[in-house]
Write a sequence for this structure.
């Protein structure tokens, strides 16, 4: 059984054998007991970071381990096969590791396809590689997340990163970015990270952003269409239909080094002032007295410190956006509440609010004076009152039905009254027949009662004669 087969056994992964201890399964090829998965993680991390200490590799590649002992074993085993090399120490006397050319080829096998790994950082460890160490600390802080209660969680993995990324601008002109993060899950399709240890003048740091602007302005052809060149590298960013142009990717500047808090704050303020030509928007006039900020050809510049990044993480309130003021969470720092897109959305909302108010007034104007209903309260809006003074269709129908019912009742009462007038006053059941009326028009009894009364010798009952009106005599003088 060879070494690779042995390390697939359960005992291969480091496991505690006592307080702070670990144990490995040994093999002839890898005598330090590292596992293939651990070696692959180390190769991937060094392929991205170029140079790092074992402690940094442990926090970046295997943050769940309690110590870096397993990482050091993997580095030693890889070194036996000519894949890793240690050639210096940091200022804190930690050993620095890098990949050899063969190790770079091996790292390309475990990293995502198409990744440009650059060089091997040869000779970087001889001076302690302070800049690379701070870049690694920045990446470790973002991967780990913050420690404060309102901090953001850890973001991404080491494979989401690239370092010393070259952005070609033109002949013999390029912008080299310390680190690039592609983390769509955090709302950042691409974030360019620059690390400043305080060894350069603020003017030299600010001058980098002029090159970034030139890089973002560069155009290229894609499927016969002219697009920004950075779209070919990092994809087309998501954009709402309100945006007139693609906003530039944000550039984050992480301050660190041996500067104190006051010196860092002064340096941040100075850099913000010097980079004003590349982040300050142009104010444009909209409708009426409304204005908006035009961020086209402007770079979102975010500034923080390594201490804040360790405390709040990538998405927490660690960022100062040039032009915003104060510290903000990443989402708020990247937002432009005064942009043209925001202005259009605000104008649309105001338009919709005006239209809603007008519709409300229109609804109120067409309230039915009887039932007090508005057009939107009907199943069929055509049934509403046409002008607010006439009744609605249901009310008109109800009034018509009530009128018809009243007329029907009145006609029925008239028939009953007419029928009552034609009944016999003696038996109250018989009717005064036409032949009796022809014989005695004033008779008010039926034919039977009329004859019975005649047989008895009684005079017939007749309607009383109308009494002549009495003449009134007025005394004249």
């Amino acid at each position: 059984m060879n070494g690779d087969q042995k390390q697939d056994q359960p005992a291969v992964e480091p496991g505690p054998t006592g307080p702070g201890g670990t144990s490995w399964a040994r093999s002839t090829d890898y005598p330090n007991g590292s596992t293939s998965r651990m070696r692959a993680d180390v190769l991937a991390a060094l392929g991205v970071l170029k140079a790092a200490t074992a402690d940094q590799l442990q926090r970046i590649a295997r943050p769940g381990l309690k110590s870096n002992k397993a990482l050091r074993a993997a580095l030693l085993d890889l070194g036996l096969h000519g894949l890793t090399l240690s050639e210096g120490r940091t200022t804190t006397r930690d050993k620095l590791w890098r990949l050899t050319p063969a190790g770079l080829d091996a790292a390309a096998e475990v990293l995502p396809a198409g990744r440009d790994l650059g060089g091997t950082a040869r000779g970087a460890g001889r001076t302690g590689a302070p800049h690379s160490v701070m870049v690694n600390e920045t990446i470790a802080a973002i991967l780990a997340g913050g420690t404060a209660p309102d901090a953001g969680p850890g973001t991404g993995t080491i494979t989401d990163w690239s370092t010393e990324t070259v952005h070609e601008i033109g002949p013999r002109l390029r912008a080299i970015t310390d680190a690039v993060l592609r983390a769509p899950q955090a709302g950042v399709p691409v974030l360019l990270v620059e690390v400043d240890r305080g060894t350069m003048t603020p003017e030299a740091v600010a001058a980098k952003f002029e090159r970034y602007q030139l890089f973002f302005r560069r155009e290229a052809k894609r499927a016969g269409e002219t697009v920004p060149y950075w779209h070919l590298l990092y994809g087309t960013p998501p954009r709402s239909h309100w945006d007139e142009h693609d906003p530039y990717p944000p550039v984050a500047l992480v301050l660190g080094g041996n500067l104190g808090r006051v010196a860092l704050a002064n340096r941040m303020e100075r850099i913000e002032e010097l980079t004003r030509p590349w982040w300050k928007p142009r104010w444009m006039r909209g409708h009426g007295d409304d204005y908006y900020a035009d961020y086209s050809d402007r770079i979102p510049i975010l500034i923080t410190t390594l201490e804040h990044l360790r405390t709040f993480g990538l998405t927490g309130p660690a960022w100062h956006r040039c032009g915003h003021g104060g510290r903000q969470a990443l989402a708020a720092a990247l937002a432009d509440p005064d942009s043209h897109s925001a202005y259009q959305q605000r104008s649309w909302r105001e338009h919709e609010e005006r239209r809603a108010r007008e519709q409300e007034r229109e609804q109120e104007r067409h309230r039915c004076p009887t039932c007090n209903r508005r057009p939107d309260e009907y199943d069929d809006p055509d049934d509403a009152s046409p002008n607010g003074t006439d009744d609605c269709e249901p009310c008109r129908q109800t009034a018509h039905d009530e009128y018809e019912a009243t007329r029907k009742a009145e006609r029925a009462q008239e028939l009953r009254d007419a029928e009552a007038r034609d009944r016999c006053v003696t038996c109250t059941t018989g009717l005064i027949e036409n032949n009796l009326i022809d014989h005695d028009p004033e008779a008010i009894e039926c034919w039977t009662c009329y004859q019975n009364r005649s047989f008895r010798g009684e005079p017939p009952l007749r309607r009383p004669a109308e009494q002549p009106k009495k003449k009134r005599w007025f005394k004249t003088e």
Q: What stands out?
A: Residues 1-24 have pLDDT under 50 and may be disordered. Residues 24 and 430 are 127 Å apart (CA to CA).
